[in-house]
Amino acid sequence: MNPTVIILFLLIVLSTLVVTYYAAKRTKTTSEFYTAGGGLTGWQNGLAIAGDYLSAASFLGIAGAIALTGFDGFFFSLGYLVAYLVVLFIVAEPLRNLGKYTLADMINSRFDAKKVRGVAAISTITIVIFYMIAQLVGAGALIQLLFNIDYWVAVLIVGVMMTIYVLFGGMTATSWVQIIKAVLLMAATVVISFIVLSKFNFNISTMFSEMKTATPLGEDYLNPGVKYKVPLDTLSLMTALVLGTAGLPHILMRFFTVRDAKTARSSVMWATWIVGVFYILTIFLGFGAAAFVGSDTIVAANSAGNMAAPLLAEVLGGDFLMSFISAVAFATILAVVAGLVLSGASAFAHDIYGQIIKKGKVTEKQQMYAAKYASVGVAILSILIALFAQNMNVAFLVSLAFCIAGSANLPVIIYTIYWKRFNTAGAVTAMLSGLISALVLVSMSPSVFSPVEGAAIFVGDPIFPLTNPAIVSVPLGFLGGLVGTVLSGKKDLTRFAEVKFRANTGFRKETK
Amino acid sequence: MGEGRHHDGKEKNKFEKVVESKEFKELMDRKKKFIVPLTIFFLVFYFALPILTSYTKILHQPAIGDITWVWIFALAQFIMTWTLVTIYMKKSAAFDMLAQKIVEEEVSKGGKEQ
């Protein structure tokens, strides 16, 4: 292992621990633990959202996908970015105005029912676990490659770090780790893109011309269809990407860390600019890797292409740049998993323990203990699963998480805010039908069943033809809510008036 | 239906009254007229790209030098996203003022704000 990697690696660990130390002093109440006391400014939260969102799958995965499949890899960049319009136009402000710590809080502002909260918590936990395993497995594989240590040691290192941030520094530490990571990641990406562009004499047109012959794919490299040949599969993936973000618990939770809807809005604006610039630059990362590293070398290092960005850095800037990118990739993983632990813990400790089991009658001290125990619990559970899931396909797990988020969470969010007739039964059926259909369809899909041995988890013909079921499961989530509402026939228009008023004006709940 | 009462004669609470006020209805109306068409627009624009590339080859042709139309369309998606975000920020500042007025009026009528 080269010393530069170790020094940069330790610098990142050290600076995040310093942040955690200071954050710990400011984390005394439950609100501070879950939401940093709601005290983040627009740009801070915007950077933190970007830091939470640009996961290893985004950074390493998209760079690799573009390097190996050209435009088809860029589909991810488009979907992940346009998703922010759904967040901004439909979800962010009402969510901030109605919720406190979790998605369940927001839905329960309309329906005071344990079963609604319970199902929302289950949906949150399911998404968090899939997303978390994806991050940890990816992290393990990456660190193993970069630092030449065993997979289980790598997973443990990441696991211990994320637990320390969350346990001691809560949301304040998590947010600042995400902010630091976002800045580092942007800096690294800009530097690499600049060098790549300089190699093409700063001429984009030249770059495209040279890419026509730079890869084994020839001219096809510049057009879609290399990887995604089935139209419905492509559309289904694009549906999951654009609608999933607005239902991801760790992203939704970030909107509770700001004072009001106005700040929530401006944080989405900041995030959209930052991730937008990043996603444009993924073209340079991908093209650069394809041209200067070569697809054979990329595939040899990792068949999914995850090593494309670090390898490109090595070719362009030698050991130092390679070490820097590796350290940034490490920081990236830490920032995302810390956010995930926190949102999983909030569902367990706040929703299930505090509100359902204790019916909201918990002292501040009990809540804080519950939150910390739950964080450790979520961390241990994820580490254990990740240790056994080493051979799971990371991209599959992430797209599944997006699919569940879009199918189970988005319909209920939209109905709660905008549909007058919506009721408790509808909320439960919307979430359950989205969650169950996504899980069932995926378990019958080509990602799980393949006639070719080793290509998927089981050998056999897939019953459901699409890799990503979003195009079916998202409508099923909406349909489930509709049917449940109509069949139960109950209405509570009084409560809706209050929700509508608060969602649109930011008027706070009255104390009685 | 009499002012401030339900069909069954039960008195409406203050939220039911305020959501039926002229000012609040105007706010909702303006929000709807702004958000609904733009949301439909960006979803159509977004899905147009994969639909066109999946079912046709019209975007596979070169546009500028060797850059094909699909990249130009993709870049347009970025520009669309940033433009809509900017428009939203401007527009919602106006909604804020309207909402602020309604809330202030409500508070002055005795509704408490926490």
From TrEMBL, chain A:
Give the matching PROSITE patterns.
NA_SOLUT_SYMP_3 (PS50283)
The organism's lineage is: Bacteria, Bacillati, Bacillota, Bacilli, Bacillales
Native species of this protein? Perspicuibacillus lycopersici
Q: Give the protein name, as stated in the record.
A: Sodium/solute symporter
Q: What is its main location?
A: membrane
Q: Which family does it belong to?
A: Belongs to the sodium:solute symporter (SSF) (TC 2.A.21) family.
Q: Where in the cell is it found?
A: Cell membrane
Has keyword Calcium? no
GO biological process annotation, one example: plasma membrane acetate transport
TrEMBL record, chain B:
Q: Which domain of life is it from?
A: Bacteria
Q: Does the keyword Transmembrane helix apply?
A: yes
Q: Is Nucleotide-binding one of the keywords?
A: no
Q: Name one Pfam family in it.
A: DUF485
Report the transmembrane regions from the record: 34-55, 67-88
| UniProt keyword list | Membrane, Transmembrane, Transmembrane helix
Q: What is this protein called?
A: DUF485 domain-containing protein
Q: Which organism is it from?
A: Perspicuibacillus lycopersici
